[in-house]
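Example (one chain per record):
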Amino acid sequence: MGEHIRSRILDFLEGPSTMGPVPGVPAYHTVVFIPAHPRYPDGEGQPRIAVELLEHSGTTPVPVAFTSLEKLVEALGPAQLWIASSIGPFAEAMRDAGLPKVRLDPAVTPGTVTWRAEELEAYARKVK
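Predicted structure:
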């Protein structure tokens, strides 16, 4: 007893890397906060996570992630729903979905709020 329990999957993920660190790119396992919300299918079924894309310089909406919860709240407001993930798997999932590169800590136009408290309350009532 007293031994720290550790997932064996980390042994595979933390194995020898063929690449060294890349300047300006966070490590694969860096935790980020992603604007997202549950999406409930019509009828029965498990909810899915819907990642929210943001406009970027008038182009195609892009996936975004923030390096701290404080940065997400500052950019999108306190009612913004979010998930936490490692940047590596998130960026890979977005790439595999055919989306543009993830923007990390993007500059967001002041006043950009994707969720307001009353919308969050209405959404919660709707999916109950």
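Caption: Residues 33 and 69 are 6 Å apart (CA to CA).
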